[in-house]
Every structure is written in C-alpha cells, then in structure tokens.
C-alpha cells in the first residue's frame, strides 16, 4: 500500500514570526512542552502502529507510520508558550498562525532528510497534513479524500481520538465510549472511513498489546529511532531562541 503522495509532498511555506517570550517563560514552558510532547507522541505512535496493523500494512510500513506519528507534532515544540507550557494560541480566524506547527514540523523534518533516511518524506507529509480532513474541512490546505497522504489520514484519526480522551473529564469507560462514538460519526466526513474503522477495531483487538510493546522503543530511543530523538532535540534548541525568523520553503 502506497503511504506517500507523489504530487503534494510537504514543502513548508514561510512561517509567520511569533512574538518572543521572556527567558523565564521559555524555560518553564520548554520543560512542560517536552513532557507533553513525549506523552502524546508515545500514545499516537502506539495507536498508529496498531491501526496500521489492522489495516493490513506490512510490519515495516507499520513501523514507519508509528515513527511518523511520534514526530507529527514536533513543530509545536518551536511555538512560543506561556509559563504553563501551553502554546500561545492566536484567534481562531488567524489561520496562518493556527497551522504554523504543521508547517514548522515539516520544515524541521525536511532539514534533516539526510539523517532521517528513506522515510523522511513520509514523516514530513504526516507532520504537514495530519490536520487535513476527508471532507476538506481541515488545514493547512483543505485537501480532500485521496489527496491526503494515507499515513497522514491514519495519524489524523489517531491524534483526534487521543485529544478527545485527554479533553474529557468523564470516567475512563465513558470518555472512551464517547470518543469512539465521535470517531464513528466522523467516518466519511472528517476521516477516511477505512482509517476510522481501523482505529475502532484496533482499540478492541489483540494487536493493541503488540503495539504497546512496540511503542516502548520510542521511550528508550533505540536503534533507528535515534535520529528522531535528535530531531526533537533540535526542535527544543529552536524553542530556546528568543524568536525565530521567517524561513523559506524547503526544497
């Protein structure tokens, strides 16, 4: 199964220049941001791996999608944050800033192509397009259906499910049931129906245990995942700067 798109490979455009935070805010926010990124990245990697297995991808493809899922929000690490580590969100209508983490993530990954190897384009595509939606209601480019890379469709539905779980204050059983119901309701509108069904099936499938075992590799930073750890370190280095300038499209 082809996980990439040949005609819409991620090429980040120039990114608007956010205002700089104070050094004290940056240090506090950076520490919290790193913890939250690691937790969310591991959750997404685990479920993306399990969902990919249910969808019939090869083990190497499952691994590549999981690695892409682990990196999909790396752009958020270079956004300015408040002292609690939360991104300084602009007004909802300010789309160029709202989708900045997608562009920044793809830009960071494109800058590390030589280090990340053969799957670098897949990682960049997932970082750029994981907020696109099946019906064209997503961002940054309002792509529809098959124009969205398949791996980004998988990570998109997984990411949405995890955010639903995390945002809920209900008891675990109720919040999981509600999140699954919302994923089912979003199939064929927000999400590729195959990916939505794959995630729902994964959540009750024995393969989820194997996915949990696989996700432990990310925490250990072993083997081929070391370049991914290096990329996150680079993103954090960028985050330490008082401000980051406008950068042109990666080639």
Element order, helices and strands? HHHHHHHHHHH
Q: Mind summarizing the main beta sheet? A: none
Determine the CATH topology. Hypothetical protein af1432
Q: Fraction of residues in helices?
A: 55-70%
Shape: globular
Name of the top-level CATH class: Mainly Alpha
Average pLDDT rating: 74
Strand content: under 5%
Low-confidence spans: 12-31, 90-94, 217-225, 240-251
Going by CATH, the homologous superfamily would be Hypothetical protein af1432
Distance between the termini: 26 Å
Our Rg estimate from Cα atoms comes to: 17 Å
> What structural class do you assign from the helix and strand content?
mainly alpha
Overall number of strands: 0
Q: Helix tally?
A: 11
In CATH, the architecture is Orthogonal Bundle
The domain tally reads: 1
Assembly type: single chain
